[in-house]
Amino acid sequence: MKRSIDEHADRFSDHAADYDESQDSEEYRECADLVVRHAAPSADDVVLDLGTGTGAIALPLADAAAEVVGRDISEGMLEQAQAKATERGIDNVSFGEGRFRDPSVEGEVDVVTSNFAMHHLDDEAKREAIDAIAALEPRRFVLGDVMFFDEPDPSIPFYDPSVDDPATVGVLADAFTDAGFALTAVEMVHGQVGVLVGERVPDAEAVDQS
C-alpha cells in the first residue's frame, strides 16, 4: 500500500463533499451500474458493501435487499452516505467504519460488493481482503474496480499511481478462485476498468452429505 489506511481515510474525508461530482466519467458510472446489476440481491438478502464511499452501490441495492451494510474507512464519506440515505428515506441501510480485512460486520452476509476501492491495496493485501470476504461465506462477491486488462497507462485518469496500486485482471481472478469463488463473469468496461463476479463454490463435503 502506497499510503497508510489513515492517510487514505483523511484524503477521502477531505474530498467527501464533492466526491460524487468528481466521479462523473462514463466508465465509472457504467462500472457502478454493472456492480449493482450483478449483485442482484433477493428480498431476503443481506448485502455488505465494502469501500462504500458515499453509497453509490449501497443505496441503489436497498430497494431489492432486506438489509445493506456499508463499510468505509473515511468518516467524511460515511457522513455523506448517511445524509443521502436520510434524504431519500431509505431505512434499511446502515453505515459504519470497516475495512476490507476487518469489515466489522456481525451475522450472515449473502452478497458482498465493492466498487472503485480495492485498488488502494497492494496485491498481497488484495488477496488477504478477498480471503476475508470469502470467510464471511457470501454466495456472491462482485468487484468493480480499476484493473488492468491492457498495459497500465497512468495518463488515463482512473487512478493515481502515486497513491493507488491496481492489479491485473489475472491477479484478481487467481485471488477469487484461490479463495473459493468460481468466476461467473468478467466484464471489461475499459482497458483499465472492469467487474469480476464470483459465486461461492459449495463445500465438497457438504455436497456429498446432501
What does this structure look like?
The protein has 210 residues and is of the alpha/beta class. Strands 1, 2, 3, 4, 5, 6, 7 and 8 form an 8-stranded mixed beta sheet that branches. The protein is globular. Strand 4, helix 6 and strand 5 form a beta-alpha-beta unit. Helix content is 36%, strand content 24%.
Mean pLDDT, as a whole number?
88
Q: Shape from CA axes? A: globular
Report the uncertain regions: 204-210
Give the strand tally. Answer: 8
Helical segment count: 8
Main beta sheet: strand number and arrangement? 8 strands, mixed
Q: Name the helicity range.
A: 25-40%
Encode the helix/strand succession as letters: HHHEHEHEEHEEHEEH
Radius of gyration computed on alpha carbons:
16 Å
> How much strand?
15-25%
What structural class do helix, strand and pairing data support? alpha/beta
Quote the distance from N terminus to C terminus: 43 Å
